Structure formats: C-alpha cells, structure tokens
Amino acid sequence: MKIQYLSKKDAKKLIENLEHLEYLDRKFIEYLHDNRDDVKVYSFDKYDIFVFGPMPALFKLHREGFDRYLIPTLYAVNVFWYRHKSGIIPLVVVDEGAVKPIVNGADIMAPGIRKFLREFDKEWYVGVLEPNEKYVIAVGLSLMSSKEIQLIRKGKAIKNLNRLNDDLWNQCLEIARKHGLS
C-alpha cells in the first residue's frame, strides 16, 4: 500500500470532473468540496481509494475499462444511506434470494431486482440495497437502464464492482477506523 496526498488544486479538479455526472447526488459532491483540503489516495495492486477528510469516498479500479473512472465506495454509499436516507447514486432493492450470491461476488440479475429508488441509465453506477432497505450490499455498473430492466426482466442488469466483505470493502473499513470513523 502506498499513500499519496492530493494537492488542493488536483482535488478541486477531480471534484469538478465529477460535478457533471447526473447520477451523483449533490450532497455527496458538497461533502467532497467540504473535504477537498484533505485528500489522500491509498494505492493497492487492484485499485486506488480516494479518502476525503476521514471518509474513503471513491475508488478507481486498475482494470481496463474502469481505470479512468472514479466510483463511490460501498462504504460511502452506506454512510450516506444511513445518515441521510439518500442514495449518492441510484439504488435498487433486491429480493432475499439475491443477497447471498451478490455478497459472494455474483452480478445482479434483473429478476432479483424488486424496486428502483431512482431511475438510471445504462452505464451509471448503482447501489444495491438488501430487501429490508437497511444497508447497501454492493455497488455496480448498470448494464441496462432501469426502464430496460423493468421491461426485459431477465439477464444481468448490474456488474458487481464492490460488495460487502470483499477486499476493497475491508480496506475501506480499515481506513475509516484509522481516521476515527466506524
């Protein structure tokens, strides 16, 4: 693991690049702005985690096709859901039968999605809530729009990128603990 501090100028530029993204909630953008003077990047073999203030807020995968994009961490999505009952990205609710496969790394299949808390387009980042809507179990990339999912009702709907108990989740928890969060 390598830790690098982002300059205020680079942090501001990074946030400006995120501001135009329709799927990101404004409260999350405000949080990033409020913490732009304290941004650290934790680099690992497979991903980088961008920590704004005390929160591991964004990640970038070192995987072709994803290496240019900053994605909200499952940790940040859960914090905002718990504190504000708002999704910093669109959220779907899955049925009970989908939870275990998703937490084990499976992609989210259209038939397992029960409800949409916000409409979304194809290739937007989406959070996946468990059936009781208490916490988010995964963050993924939509392979279809919410309208297509409702219409087609079959096939892979969301590519699973960050899930409970994966390495990225565990690193975010460790970073949060180091910064006084839990």
- DSSP E strands, number: 11
Reading side by side through the largest sheet, how are the strands ordered? Answer: 7-11-10-9-6-8
Q: How many domain units?
A: 1
Biggest sheet features: 6 strands, mixed
**Tally of contiguous helical segments:** 6
* Global Rg: 16 Å
The poorly predicted ranges are none
Overall spatial form:
globular
> Under CATH, the topology is which?
Sulfate adenylyltransferase
Please give the oligomerization state of what you see: single chain
Structural class: alpha+beta
Distance between the termini: 21 Å
Which percent bin holds the helix content?
25-40%
Beta-strand level of the residues, as a percent range?
Answer: 25-35%
Could you name the CATH class?
Alpha Beta
Question: Mind explaining what this structure looks like?
Answer:
By secondary structure, the chain is α+β, with helices and mostly antiparallel strands. It has one domain: Sulfate adenylyltransferase, CATH 3.10.400.20. Helix content is 32%, strand content 30%. It has helices spanning 8-19, 26-34, 74-84, 96-103, 146-152, 167-178, and strands at 2-5, 39-43, 47-52, 55-61, 71-72, 91-94, 108-109, 113-116, 125-129, 136-142, 156-163. The strands form two sheets. A six-stranded mixed beta sheet has the order 7-11-10-9-6-8. The chain has a five-stranded antiparallel beta sheet with strand order 1-2-3-4-5. Strand 2 and strand 3 (47-52) form a beta hairpin. Helix 1 (8-19) runs antiparallel to helix 2. It is globular, with a radius of gyration of 16 Å. It starts with a strand and ends with a helix.
